[in-house]
Design brief:
The chain contains one helix and ten strands. About 35% of the residues lie in helices and about 35% in strands. Its main location: secreted.
């Protein structure tokens, strides 16, 4: 074999080895770049999630702040009263007067006539409890401006109690009271057992 042939063969071998080395080197670089790209993509997704959470927190905080501001500006109206003495006999549709007022905020309830008059328009919640005595029974109604909202009955069972509750919208000046239902029953036990309570849920 001539020296020229050896030289050519060596050059071919060198080119082949160099090509293989370059191919391996390029594949390694590509693999590293792909790994780096995957890492950056993952970090970017994490940042997006954090931003979304922060936006959600900001929206929630804004809603809470608005709710607190609304509550702060809403008027507060509430009352609670009981009956001191037994009531008997009772006339048909007689107004039940809860004469012992222990909570009265924002005005509204008059213990002399037994009526609540809304000082603020909005939605109110009312609860009435009533108690009978020994062999007697009683039925009462919660009334708004002449229309019944709910009824309660305390039966003849000893110290039986009845109750009714209502959520209702009132205009300014609307009246709410408790009355004896027609002529059903004839005795209400006092001693602070019966109660009439109400409060403003949300003003208009």
């Amino acid at each position: 074999m001539t020296s020229n042939s050896l030289c050519v063969g060596f050059c071919i071998l060198l080119v082949t080895v160099s090509s293989a080395f370059c191919k391996v080197s390029n594949e390694e670089r590509l693999s590293k770049l792909e790994a780096q790209l995957e890492k950056v993509t993952s970090e970017l997704n994490d940042i997006k999630k954090q931003c979304a959470c922060q936006q959600g927190d900001n929206s929630s905080n804004a809603a809470m702040a608005k709710s607190r501001e609304t509550r702060a500006t809403d008027p507060f109206v509430a009352f609670a009263a009981t009956i001191i003495s037994d009531m008997t006999p009772l006339a048909a549709n007689e107004v039940i007067i809860f004469d012992n007022v222990y909570t009265k905020v924002g005005g509204g309830y008059d213990p002399f006539i037994g009526r609540f008059q809304a000082p603020v328009a909005g939605y109110y919640h009312f609860v009435v409890t009533i108690i009978s005595y020994q062999s007697h029974f009683i039925e009462i109604e919660l009334i708004r401006d002449g229309s019944m909202l709910c009824r309660a009955r305390a039966s003849q069972t000893y110290n039986a109690m009845g109750a009714c509750a209502s959520n209702v919208h009132l205009n300014v000046g609307s009246d709410v009271w408790v009355r004896h239902r027609s002529s059903v029953g004839d005795y209400i036990r006092g001693s602070y057992f019966p109660s009439f309570t109400g409060h403003l849920i949300k003003a208009d």
